[in-house]
UniProtKB/TrEMBL annotation:
Key words of the record: Aminopeptidase, Hydrolase, Manganese, Protease
Span of domain Cytosol aminopeptidase: 305-312
Lineage: Bacteria, Pseudomonadati, Pseudomonadota, Alphaproteobacteria, Hyphomicrobiales
Name recorded for this polypeptide: Peptidase B
Pfam families hit by this protein: Peptidase_M17, Peptidase_M17_N_1
């Protein structure tokens, strides 16, 4: 269990109050507390706290405003508002598991590079409400924290080898099998597009392949875009577009975070994680616009823009995943700016031909409060990828439907697997929200975890 949770013990009560029930609470409160709340102007606005003193002036209870109760992760703002100490919900929030997860996610801090005393002991702890599976809540939070840490770490310290090290950690912890193909071995082992994208960096590209679980259990394969830094390559990004590109391995971070949740939970699946870990750099040996790449699938791919590198790395990884025809194939990728134009940073689109999976996912996303939105693999746009001199173009030449054409490109590499879904994630919180501080974030993973535990738990 996370160290911000405790089983019991003396703790200060925290009373959640929505704006709608504030006047009712004031009527039942002691005259002193009612007067104090009024005098302090407490309105039960979302995230507002008020400490109620006892006659000695010590904190007897804390009020926590829920506003109109529209944000399920409102409890993510709680830890930051409380004085150090132990707390207990009184009464227990309606959806106590979500409240506790929100609280846990709000305790995340990325302090690897903060000098001075790194006091790791949690300052605020919460008693686990009865009936809440605190181990599952902890497992979900730890998976998210792992992913956030990977994204937040600057590219100088999170290169392809560091992503490999993250996979290696999981391999040791869960007794998984790990195989990594690095540098020119990618050519020998037929991952030509992973090699082409990553070869200009002096940090060698690699294909990370982790498997775990009973070999005859249902096969679940997660593929992650692990572009540790995306300069755009020879089609160099302007500075302001490059600024955040340490997060371009957000898909790999999501896959590793979800993999950790699955293995910690011990789901009865045969899990495989495939990560194309590369740095999209500029050098004399960089791949070029107009180059034609070989691919693992056998298709020749004409390069229109070296900044559309993610789909190349994924194409080879997906082709390998597809040879096993897993029961479910998922990829996560910070793939296109177009997905952000379409739906904004907080709502990742997903693409699948599997109608039943789409419905299952929408359901899981709602339950897990982890929103995603289906966009179409619009077949008529597939011809936009036609090339005059190669089997396929990796981008279309117009400005339209960029996330759809990217998804259609990926689908060229998955021809045997019936149930395949691609998530185009943003992987970043630009404005702080409760439980989601500014920085790396892991999207769509809680929805998938919910789906998988429902299926295989
Ligand atoms: N990693 C980027 C996509 C991206 C940019 C995601 C910003 C999230 C925020 C990707 O490799 C890329 O550069 N895509 C290009 C593709 C284009 C050249 C066809 C894009 O979306 O502009
Ligand atoms: Mn790019
Ligand atoms: Zn990229």
């Amino acid at each position: 269990m996370l160290d911000v949770f405790i089983d019991a013990g003396p703790a200060t009560p925290v009373t959640p109050i929505s704006a709608g029930i504030l006047s009712a609470w004031i009527e039942t409160a002691s005259p002193a507390h009612a007067a104090w709340a009024k005098a302090q102007g407490f309105k039960a606005k979302a995230g507002e706290t008020l400490a109620l003193p006892n006659t000695e002036g010590a904190i007897e209870r804390v009020l926590f405003g829920l506003g109109d109760e529209s944000d399920p992760f409102i409890y993510g703002g709680l830890a930051g508002k409380l004085q150090p100490g132990d707390y207990v919900f009184d009464p227990t929030p309606e959806d106590a598991s979500v409240a506790l997860l929100g609280f846990a996610l709000g305790t995340y801090a990325f302090n690897r590079y903060k000098s001075g005393s790194k006091d790791d002991a949690p300052k605020v702890r919460m008693v686990v409400p009865t009936g809440v599976d605190c181990h599952d809540v902890s497992r979900i939070a730890r998976g998210i924290f792992l992913g956030r840490d990977l994204i937040n770490t600057p590219a100088a310290d999170m290169g392809p080898a560091d992503l490999e090290a993250a996979a290696e950690k999981l391999h040791h912890r869960f007794d998984a099998r790990l195989s990594v193909t690095t540098g020119d071995d990618l050519l020998r082992d037929n991952y030509p597009m992973v090699h082409a994208v990553g070869r200009a960096s002096d940090r060698a590209p690699r294909l990370i392949d982790l498997t775990w679980g009973r070999s005859d259990a249902p096969k679940i394969t997660l593929v992650g875009k692990g572009v540790c830094f995306d300069t755009g390559g020879l089609n160099l990004k302007p500075g302001n577009f490059m600024a955040l590109m340490k997060k371009d391995m957000g898909g790999a971070a999501a896959a590793l975070g979800l993999a950790q949740m699955i293995m910690e939970r011990g789901l009865d699946v045969r899990l495989r994680v495939l990560i194309g870990a590369v740095e999209n750099s500029v050098a004399g040996n960089a791949f070029r616009p107009s180059d034609i790449l070989q691919s693992r699938k056998g298709l020749t791919v004409e390069i229109g823009n070296t900044d559309a590198e993610g789909r190349l790395v994924l194409g080879d990884a997906l082709a390998e995943a597809d040879t096993e025809t897993p029961e479910l194939l998922v990829d996560f990728a910070t793939l296109t700016g177009a997905a952000r134009v379409a739906l904004g940073p907080e709502l990742p689109p997903f693409f699948t031909k599997d109608e039943a999976l789409a419905a299952e996912l929408e359901d899981a996303a709602t339950t897990a409060h982890d929103p995603v939105w289906r966009l179409p693999l619009w077949a008529p746009y597939d011809s936009w990828l036609d090339s005059k001199i190669a089997d396929v173009n990796h981008i279309s030449d117009g400005p339209f439907a960029g996330c759809i054409t990217a998804a259609l490109f990926l689908n060229r590499f998955v021809t045997e697997t019936a149930s395949y879904v691609h998530f185009d994630i943003y992987g970043w919180n630009a404005k702080p929200r409760p439980g989601r501080p500014v920085g790396g974030d892991i999207q769509a993973v809680r929805a998938l975890y919910h789906l998988l535990t429902k299926r295989y738990g």
